[in-house]
Design goal:
With 425 residues, the protein is mostly helical. Helices cover 81% and strands 0% of the residues. The protein has one domain: Na+/H+ antiporter like fold (Up-down Bundle). The radius of gyration is 21 Å and the shape is globular. It starts with a helix and ends with a helix.
């Protein structure tokens, strides 16, 4: 008789083995590995039953209080931010800022309206769905762009957008939950602002503080790491120092109800750009790259595993419709609106209509929506919020389909439309 604990470790070992096979298999068929991981999760989860659905949900959203999803996101964002190029960010700052503010709000509201109209749920629930799928994914954009010849202004803007819109997506989710359950402990910090200065002004102040404070902390800690290493020369133990400080940022800021991800991104960007590039820093980046890939693999396998056959049968048509509308209606509306506003008063228009069309058709959803998709349901269970408990599964199933379909579709058509739409500036 196998004990429950032993069975859980069997499942963890099985998840890691599946992840190891998924990457080389995806290379053989020349597609991004994320759909392969999710497909493996579906096959070995709801179809064959090797991965238990309730255990997968626990591991993804509740393990260690916050879940593998959030902990993995910490590692992923820290590693990805090593690749931020300050020169490109400065050059295309206004465009990135437009997409990450106006564009994300339009996405959240537009997708929320569509979700509410199609499913019949209240708009408050629809807005949660829209907020969750508003961030785009650098993990699938970067390998896709490597396959085609991409102009620096386009790739720099889209990758910059995807790196910086993750914290904003989390903040929009906070706003959405606060509209439904302001008494929830999950949004107590936001409720404090909105109850004193109003919802709109409170949202703006909350967003600024949630971005500025952790970003400054992250920048400071990044330079502190570099200074300490010059003084003490940690050699291979620089890995322990950086990982420890990143986890400390996450834990400490979360304890004060401050979004930690701007701090983590800022620390990774400073370390990636201002370290001395010695062999030990190269090992630090290589270690975090491998750790990031492993975190992504586990998360996407778990996502496939938390789906049930009944959910897939009942909601696959809904998922396809939502995905198509997000890709070909909501995303273009957000991109054209935000870039047109910032380009309106410029003497030189940076992006012509063909380039904007390409950018509007590139916006795969990925790791952050996956992690956030279970938050409404978990918050509902923790704080006994019936509306979140009722609609939480619908949200994470719908998000799962949107992520899977947008990644697969855009992996196929982005190289094709790139050849036809991207010309000279």
């Amino acid at each position: 008789m196998i004990s429950d604990i032993t069975y859980e470790y069997y499942q963890i070992s099985f998840i890691l083995i599946i992840a190891a096979f998924a990457i080389p298999l995806s290379r053989k068929v020349s597609i991004v590995y994320i759909p392969v991981l999710m497909l493996f999760g579906i096959v070995f989860g709801p179809i064959l039953g090797f991965i238990n659905q309730s255990f997968a949900l626990f591991l993804l959203s509740s393990f260690g209080t916050v879940g593998i999803g959030i902990l993995g996101l910490v590692i992923i964002l820290y590693y990805e931010s090593h690749n931020i190029n300050p020169r490109i960010i400065r050059r295309y700052l206004y465009d990135i800022a437009a997409l990450d503010t106006i564009g994300m709000v339009i996405t959240a509201i537009g997708a929320g309206v569509i979700f509410s109209l199609i499913t019949g749920v209240p708009f408050r629930i629809g807005f949660l769905f829209g907020a969750i799928i508003s961030p785009t994914d650098p993990a699938s954009l970067i390998p896709t762009f490597r396959r085609i010849s991409m102009r620096e202004d386009v790739s720099g803007t889209l990758i910059g957008e995807s790196l910086f819109n993750d914290p904003l997506g989390i903040i929009l989710l906070d706003v959405g939950i606060a509209l439904i359950a302001p008494e929830s402990s999950y949004v107590s910090f936001f409720t404090l602002f909105s109850s004193h200065i109003g919802l709109i002004l409170g949202s703006v102040v909350f967003m600024i503080l949630q971005m500025a404070i952790p970003a400054l902390i992250g920048i400071a800690l990044g330079f502190i790491i570099i200074y300490l290493n010059k003084y003490f020369n940690f050699e291979n133990f620089i890995i322990a120092l950086t990982l420890g400080i990143v986890l400390f940022e996450f834990t400490s800021l979360t304890a004060f109800n401050i979004t930690p991800f701007p701090a983590i991104i800022a620390t990774g960007a400073i370390v990636g750009n201002y370290s001395d590039k010695s062999i030990f820093w190269s090992r630090e980046m290589s270690f975090n790259e491998n750790l990031s890939f492993m975190a992504q693999s586990i998360i996407f396998i778990l996502l496939g595993s938390i789906l049930t056959l009944r959910e897939m049968e009942n909601y696959i048509l809904l998922g396809i419709i939502l995905s198509l509308l997000v890709m070909f209606l909501v995303r273009p509306a957000a991109v054209f609106s935000s870039l047109s506003i910032f380009n309106f008063k410029r003497e030189l228009i940076r992006f012509n209509n063909k380039t904007k069309t390409f950018m509007s058709l590139v916006g795969p959803r990925g790791i952050v929506p996956i992690v956030l998709s279970t938050v409404p349901y978990v918050v509902g269970l923790d704080d006994d919020i019936n509306i979140l408990i009722k609609y939480g599964p619908l949200i994470y199933v719908s998000v799962s389909f949107v992520v899977l379909i947008t990644i697969i579709a855009q992996t196929i058509y982005v190289p094709l439309i790139g050849k036809n739409l991207l010309g000279r500036k």
